[in-house]
Amino acid sequence: xxxxxxxxxxxxGSFALTSCEKFDDQRPTISGIAVANxxxxxxxxxxxxxxxxxxxxxxxxxxxxxxxxxxxxxxxxFARLGLVDEGSLxxxxxxxxxxxxxxxxxxxxLAGSAINAGGSSASAIGVPRRFISRGADKYINGxxxxxxxxxxxxxTVHVIDKVMIATGVNIVASAQLLSGSKVxxxxxxxxxxxxxxxxxxxxxxxxxxxxxxxxxxxxxAFKAAGFPTVQSVSDAPAAxxxxxxxxxxxxxxxxxxxxxxTTAATAGGGMxxxxxxxxxxxxxxxxxxxTPANMVIPDILCSNGVVHLIDRVLLP
Length: 316
Fold this sequence. Notes:
Helices cover 25% and strands 23% of the residues. By secondary structure, it is of the alpha+beta class.
């Protein structure tokens, strides 16, 4: 996982707003804004569990003006991942939670007027986030920016509707992190990893020269498609698995906010059909299934593409 060399973050703190959390301009710190806003209570809990709470009570020593910029997910953003309280947040690996929080922060004061399509911003862990326009809306990665320029004494807060996730490793390694409980404690992609290995596609999906959008079926999706165990996946013919997996790959890594049109050609020569873009996601259908797949966790940034977890196998 990525290592943080900057002392950036807390996205929120658990601290009450006191006089020591204010600077000369008398505005609250970023921590103070979050503590005072009930819609950031899950974020506050995440910061405490992630061991990064409190830093945003102070000026940023890594910025000449002492500022941070934080893209702050709302409670509803966390709820999309099933994270609603301390108990559910505890389902996440600590290092993953910490790096996820740090991915939402950066050094310096980035104004809303500087968030323009085609631009990007480096996060506190060094991995960039990119800015996208879709209609009249602005996005950072696949997350819609709901509000901008909430001013603090030590920077700026922008509000977003989805938690941003970046693994820092390639597509195959990202799937292995999930299947090995290194991200979410419950394995999700064990069957997919077995399929990638048996199909012989691991070198292709690991190659930094290759960039893909991957619609990744969960373990439950494989079971529903007729693979009751991981061994049943490993026992399937490599050519069959390769054809199935290539039907889940689109050349070029795209967040949900970047997908346009209603169809996309797959790396295997097939065609996927997209449903309407609703609440930041869409359904995906292939020729081999009658019911479209839903996105379970969208917009996971990998070093060579973007992965979206889905609840059905897209059979060719």
